[in-house]
Amino acid sequence: MKKALLAILLIISVLSASAQDTLVDKARVRRNVGIVLGVEAGLYAASMTGLYFAWYADYPQSRFHFYNDNAEWLQMDKMGHGTTSYIVGSFGYELLRDAGLDETRSIWLGGTLGLAFLTTVEVFDGFSDGWGFSWGDMAANTLGCGLFVGQQFLWHEQRITLKYSFHTTEFPDYRPDLLGENFIQQTIKDYNGQTLWASFNIKSLFLNKESKFPAWLNFAFGYGATGMTGGFDNALEHNGIPIPYYDRQRQFFFSLDVDFTKIPTNNKVLKYTFKVLNIFKVPFPAIEYNTGNEWVWHWIYF
């Protein structure tokens, strides 16, 4: 108890000594944080409204209901949910920290932004006749958010980063309505070409700060799937055109990666450029193992 009281007194004395300097800073921080929160709230409302009218409005609505889609797309959509929740939360946190908000509140208000965004999407699904509220999606959303929040509280940095990569495949040729009619659509819809990665920073996880090892070098484990022309099962034909038979296979990858946020810079534009680039796994050679019991070497893998 005495130590706690002494700590409180020391904190009060420090705050009192710096009060004159921080009053102006507090006003600036409140203004900046208010702007960031206002922009985030506006973007949230606009994106949800746009999503509703672009995706849900033309489909029949129903009473709120649940839907078990855990076996769909060999869980690639679940991996995507977790990765999206993580990435959106990391940007929400960075914006609030740059606005001057303290670490703890930035983690809770910004780091959970992805979870809030995707929970709204799940509620929309719950009222849509063609879908339903998915507990599997919510679990993935929560895990992605938890990975960011947990690391930030534990280490005050992200030593394990969730990332995305994509390469084109032949499967949209058979189901363009489902897997995408052009490159942009395919980056979102074609799970065959997506790989989701957990990228581990070698130096911050395993070495000391004084080590000369490159701070930006990571190794990464990836998960992908291929051979899918339907969500739960493959289609045999589409619009009367036969579709070849494909084995649906899970793919597991090991590769190297770059953590752009570990490249030091004082330039804010460059800092945010690196932050955006860090969403994507850098192409490197990779080793693949798949459920067809095959080992595959890729000289360069996207």
Key features of this structure:
302 residues; two-stranded antiparallel ribbon; alpha+beta; 9 helices; disordered N terminus; 2 domains; six-stranded antiparallel β-sheet
Can I get a quick summary?
By secondary structure, the protein is an alpha+beta fold. The protein has helices at 2-56, 76-99, 103-110, 113-126, 135-155, 176-179, 183-189, 202-206, 268-277; strands spanning 160-166, 194-201, 217-226, 237-238, 241-242, 249-258, 284-290, 294-301.
Please, how many domains?
A: 2
Question: What amount of the residues lies in strands?
Answer: 15-25%
What is the rounded Rg?
23 Å
Structural class given helices, strands, pairing? Answer: alpha+beta
Straight-line N-to-C gap = 57 Å
Query: What is the average per-residue confidence, as pLDDT, rounded to a whole number?
Result: 88
Descriptive account of the structure:
- With 302 residues, the chain is an alpha+beta fold.
- It folds into two domains: 28-157, no CATH class; 159-302, no CATH class.
- It is built from nine helices and eight strands.
- It has helices at 2-56, 76-99, 103-110, 113-126, 135-155, 176-179, 183-189, 202-206, 268-277; strands at residues 160-166, 194-201, 217-226, 237-238, 241-242, 249-258, 284-290, 294-301.
- Strands 1-2-3-6-7-8 form a six-stranded antiparallel beta sheet. It has a two-stranded antiparallel ribbon with strand order 4-5.
- Strand 7 and strand 8 (294-301) form a beta hairpin.
- The longest helix has 55 residues, at 2-56.
- The protein is globular, with a radius of gyration of 23 Å.
